[in-house]
Amino acid sequence: MAISTILTYLQAPLLAILFLVYLKQKFQLKTTKYLFQAFAFGLLSVIIFIAADLVMELFGLDTLKSLKRSVFYSFVVIGFSSQIGIFIVLRYIFLKKRHFKGPVDGIIYAIIIALGFGTAAVPLYAAGFFAAVPADLFLYTLPLALLLFGIVMGFFTGMGKFRKNRLIDSLTGLGTSSFLWGGFIILLFSPKKIQSLSCLALVSLLYQAFLQ
Q1: For 120, how many CA atoms within 13 A lie in the half-sphere containing its CB?
Q2: For a pLDDT cut of 70, what percent of the chain falls above it?
Q3: What DSSP string runs through 146-160?
Q4: Residue 106 belongs to what H/E stretch?
Q5: pTM across the whole model
Q6: Mean pLDDT in the chain?
Q7: Is the residue at 27 inside a domain?
Q8: How many domains does the chain have?
Q9: pLDDT(11) > 70
């Protein structure tokens, strides 16, 4: 197995570990039990993604012969089906817990769940398990994109903690993260120059989110 392949496998779990260490020092957490649970549920959430891809393959919709087919596969299969599993775990398992207070907790849990998803999804993609892989860059950027779009989902979903109508906030979080995912995947189906620009944009956004 090539070193580059091993590095792609390790990227998501290493990011999760670094994030947990940061949280423990920043907030002086007494326990990380729920965060480890979130990561484990994130691993399991990939099942929905697998099921959606298998359905597309069964109906022959994974053959990207046209722009319309590529858009559908990017936004619905990769975009929505990857995010819905993360959303279900965040919204229906952790949002209800007493220690979950609002958007900050939403962002934290969404990132951990998303990185759990990425830990399972990257090896499956590398092994050719899924029908269509946008580009080699996808394996390297998937954990970073999950982290960034997890912030968006976590913020809006967390807003629902102290609002009566949680549906609007939840749908906003799910819809926005799914749309961003789909748009990012479309860029990775594009020529290499556009792929490079999209990766630079992703790194820039992460820098703005965490270091500014």
Answers
A1: 20
A2: 81
A3: HHHHHHHHHHHHHHG
A4: helix 103-126
A5: 0.86
A6: 81
A7: no
A8: 1
A9: yes
